[in-house]
């Protein structure tokens, strides 16, 4: 159980901005991996897209252990004067920065294929399953300790999305303009040296951002150290009987499948189908504009309609736009941009409220179990997100191979048309499944969330007497 600490300063803009810097740092490392790693290993290292996809999926299987383990470590760690979660940002910002640089080893491009495959697996597991897990789990769990008010948490979710969106802009808008170049025959090619140099710059920036987050945020809700004996059987049974957690897990997995398949194929459809690296930057910029456009209204909209309801509305719009794009099969980049921008509404709305939704799940779990397990619940949710990331990467790699993509066939008409088709159909299918999952399995609608918050305030007040 948690108690609000009334001796600290009130929740305000400092916490919001500070928390935003944390996900800015997260996305500096995450987006460069999600957008460029598959492209780097297929086009620079000569590894097949299927093998890179399998590697990413294997990493997520390892995460099944490391995410839950880290959640338990965080829940069982002793709180410090700074809090229970924030100290992990300072401990792990250096390791995650180094691991990010190691993802793009241009210095190994002439090594034997066996060694390159070994390094690919080693560096990816070190980055994602160890370092990123060790900083992202406590960061995400920290939101429920900054404030116990639903409106404050919705604001944190919004500001987290602002930070994440800035990170996406830095990597997705600026990097394509820097890391791609035109060859003598007019083809748009990835520069391995520039990409590796960019990873070093981003590594330095992410350390600075994590430390800003550490300094500016305050944990007001004092989370006690979990001392009960860990039972894997009880954990699995608890998840299976926790409908809100299962619902958000399935929904997040499917939404990420849609989002990341759209992002991953961006490194192929813009330079290969549309013949423009600048179009990649423009598409990313349009997505961030949509996110920022909804940002000032996200808290009010979630209060008015409910977070679940808002996410469903956006996903329906996104599905329709992608299906229209598939049937148009357009070469007109302006038509593509218009419908692509509409398709990003579903991603934007869910992303703005999803972190508040997981705190709603944590509250719902506490009411049902009488035990607060922020780190464990968040780690399970994080694992589900990584499954979505793995599914998107694995599926994208497999489908690229299925349409015949290699370094030699990268600009063949049949191949680039196949890239266009999977860029539209895979995200659309993910959105449809997301709508079904959120509607059927996730029970925390607007009315239920408000009632849970009131019940928890009453419970904490009675325990404080």
Report on this structure.
- Residues 1-6 have low confidence and may be disordered.
- The protein contains 16 helices and four strands.
- The longest helix is centred in the C-terminal third of the chain and has 37 residues, at 333-369.
- The protein is an all-alpha fold and 465 residues long.
- The chain starts with a strand and ends with a helix.
Give structural attributes.
16 helices, two-stranded antiparallel ribbon, 465 residues, mainly alpha, 4 strands, single chain, 78% helix, disordered N terminus
What are the SSEs and their pairings?
Blueprint: E1 2-4, H1 13-43, H2 49-76, H3 87-102, H4 113-141, H5 143-146, H6 150-179, E2 180-182, E3 188-190, H7 192-216, E4 221-223, H8 232-240, H9 243-273, H10 277-294, H11 298-305, H12 307-328, H13 333-369, H14 374-402, H15 413-441, H16 446-464
């Amino acid at each position: 159980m948690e108690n609000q600490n009334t001796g600290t300063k009130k929740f305000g803009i400092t916490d919001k901005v500070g928390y935003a810097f944390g996900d800015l740092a997260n996305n500096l490392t995450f987006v460069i991996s999600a957008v460029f790693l598959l492209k780097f290993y297929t086009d620079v290292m000569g590894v097949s897209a299927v093998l890179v996809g399998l590697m990413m999926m294997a990493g997520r299987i390892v995460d099944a252990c490391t995410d839950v383990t880290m959640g338990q470590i965080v829940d069982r760690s002793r709180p410090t004067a700074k809090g229970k979660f924030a100290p992990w940002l300072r401990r792990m910002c250096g390791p995650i920065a180094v691991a990010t640089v190691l993802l793009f080893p241009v210095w190994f491009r002439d090594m034997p294929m066996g060694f390159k495959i070994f390094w690919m697996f080693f560096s990816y597991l070190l980055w994602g399953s160890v370092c990123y897990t060790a900083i992202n789990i406590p960061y995400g769990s920290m939101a429920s300790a900054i404030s116990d008010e639903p409106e404050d948490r919705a604001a944190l979710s919004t500001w987290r999305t602002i930070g994440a969106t800035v990170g996406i802009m830095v990597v997705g808008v600026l990097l394509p303009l820097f890391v791609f170049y035109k060859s003598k025959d007019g083809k748009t090619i990835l520069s391995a040296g520039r990409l590796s140099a960019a990873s070093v710059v981003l590594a330095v920036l992410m350390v600075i951002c994590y430390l800003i987050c550490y300094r500016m945020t305050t944990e007001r809700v004092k989370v006690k150290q979990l001392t009960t004996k860990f039972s894997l059987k009880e954990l699995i049974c608890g998840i299976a009987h926790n409908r809100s957690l299962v619902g958000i897990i399935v929904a997040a997995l499917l939404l990420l499948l849609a989002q990341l398949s759209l992002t991953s194929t961006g490194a192929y459809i813009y330079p290969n189908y549309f013949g423009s690296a600048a179009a990649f930057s423009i598409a990313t910029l349009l997505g961030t504009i949509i996110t920022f456009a909804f940002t000032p209204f996200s808290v009010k909209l979630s209060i008015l309609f409910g977070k679940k309801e808002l996410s469903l509305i956006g996903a329906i719009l996104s599905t329709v736009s992608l299906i229209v794009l598939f049937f148009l099969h357009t070469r007109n980049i302006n038509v593509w941009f218009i419908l692509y921008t509409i398709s990003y509404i579903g991603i934007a709305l869910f992303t703005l409220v999803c972190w508040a939704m997981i705190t709603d799940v944590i509250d719902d779990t506490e009411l049902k179990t009488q035990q607060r397990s922020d780190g464990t619940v968040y780690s399970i949710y994080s694992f589900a997100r990584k499954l979505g990331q793995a599914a998107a990467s694995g599926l994208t790699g497999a489908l690229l191979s299925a349409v015949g993509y290699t370094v030699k066939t990268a600009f063949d008409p049949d191949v680039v048309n196949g890239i266009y088709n999977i860029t539209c159909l895979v995200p659309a299918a993910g959105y449809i499944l997301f709508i079904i999952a959120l509607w059927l399995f996730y029970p925390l609608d607007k009315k239920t969330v408000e009632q849970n918050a009131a019940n928890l305030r009453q419970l904490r007040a009675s325990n404080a007497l």
